[in-house]
Amino acid sequence: MDLQPLPAAKSLDLDDLHIIEPLCAVFRRKLKSVGQKYTPERAQILDAIIQMDDVFQADQLIERLKKSQFRVSKATAYRTIKLLADAGIIQQVLFGADQAHYQLAYGKRSSGLLVDVDTKQITPIDAPEIAAWRDRICRERGLKAEGHRFVIYARSVNVQ
Amino acid sequence: MDLQPLPAAKSLDLDDLHIIEPLCAVFRRKLKSVGQKYTPERAQILDAIIQMDDVFQADQLIERLKKSQFRVSKATAYRTIKLLADAGIIQQVLFGADQAHYQLAYGKRSSGLLVDVDTKQITPIDAPEIAAWRDRICRERGLKAEGHRFVIYARSVNVQ
DNA sequence: GTCGGTGCAAATGCTTTGCATTGAT
DNA sequence: ATCAATGCAAAGCATTTGCACCGAC
User: Fold this and answer.
1) Could you give the CA distance from residue B71 to residue B26 in angstroms, rounded to a whole number?
2) What is the C-alpha separation between A115 and A155, in angstroms, rounded?
3) How many whole angstroms separate alpha carbon A107 and alpha carbon A89?
4) CA(A120)–C1'(C6) in Å?
5) Measuring CA to CA, which of A70, A134, A158, B91 is 20 to 30 A from A151?
6) pLDDT on residue B22
7) Residue A154 contacts B, CB cutoff 8 Å
8) How confident is residue A83, by pLDDT bands cut at 50, 70 and 90?
């Protein structure tokens, strides 16, 4: 898989109305629909992700899991991250970074991220007009938008 | 370096007016300003990049260089890619891909990329309003925009 | 008892780096 | 002579995978 297939958008069609449904239930349902199991390890990993501050990296997640009494191997963490991405529950964000960054995506409408290049702090931004504009661009070209990524790099005006 | 510092924006302040200047001259000047040399290898690599179709990956570039009679080692290719990025002549784009993708950036005002998830074809899109949004969002938070990345993932409507 | 899941360790593959050599000023 | 650049091979490092074992239905 070279470019990210963005399965998030694929499922949002159906799932937009289910935002009240807890993520673990969503995950369980998605797994069952492809004959896979909702194991304690997978539940644990999803829990840890939910408890983390928005954007996270695989090693941060693994570190957090290590601290919990319920141990999960690195391999399972990576495998589950991929499952969650396929299910549209998380999605990969950011680039120009050496590691992949992920973010909860299911039921969210975040339009993009604001990265402070000095502090490395990452803030989600919400701008619905971006999605509308995205859809128009695609329509003009006979395409259907599956999703988008928008990242702004910025720094404080008073610094420098 | 974890997150991309986007040196492009840093230099665009000064260089917006020099779009007529050939890229090799820009590169030479940037190198000289930090006591580095514009070597035949570096010239060759920049040439190859200019001849490539917009977005490229390191291994595509290396492949192209291999075919030319003037051989350049992989190490030098990677080192020069980094120099060019630092100089703001190219910038890293895309994510969710296993390899880094780069694009000529100097003097360009391309607002984003449109990725066809089926064909993997990548089309630059140009929309000044994105930069306007970016600047507004930053201003509202007391930040100064250094740059942005915008990627739309889409597929043909007639395909499924 | 069949299938998928897990953990470990080994492998993979892009990218970086150490080092000896070479070239320019 | 000095100082940076190059090429090669080796190292790094995030991520993936092969394989043996385990547990659920």
Assistant:
1) 23
2) 8
3) 8
4) 35
5) A158
6) 84
7) yes
8) very high
